[in-house]
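# nightly structure sweep
# worker-07 picked up a monomer target from the shared queue
# config: single-sequence mode, recycle default, output format = structure tokens
# input follows
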Amino acid sequence: MQRILVVDDNTEICAVLHEFLTWKGYEVYQACDSATALQQVQAVRPHIILLDVVMPWVDGIATLQEIKKIDPSVCIIMLTAVLDEPLAKKAMALGAYDYITKPVNLEYLEVVLMTKIATS
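# output follows
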């Protein structure tokens, strides 16, 4: 079973993604900030991480860099409410697999997840 970590400071988004991904058969974990996310990465070793770009204290880009130090092979999909092309390019250059804008299109997210899993 694929383990997915959802990292977002918005509890409503976490709840929606948790419900959807659980329903699709994934083992889902949540974190509301960078520090908790880094702890979860070490404890759970998720296969895929859905990571919010804008979070308090430490943003998603810095968190992406720290996660890649812990597990360079983990798939990270960035989530953001604002499309920022230079930021998206930076995230991809740092190892993000995809960059998805909110509100998250769940059908598109499912395709991205299935594609990543099929090619792993």
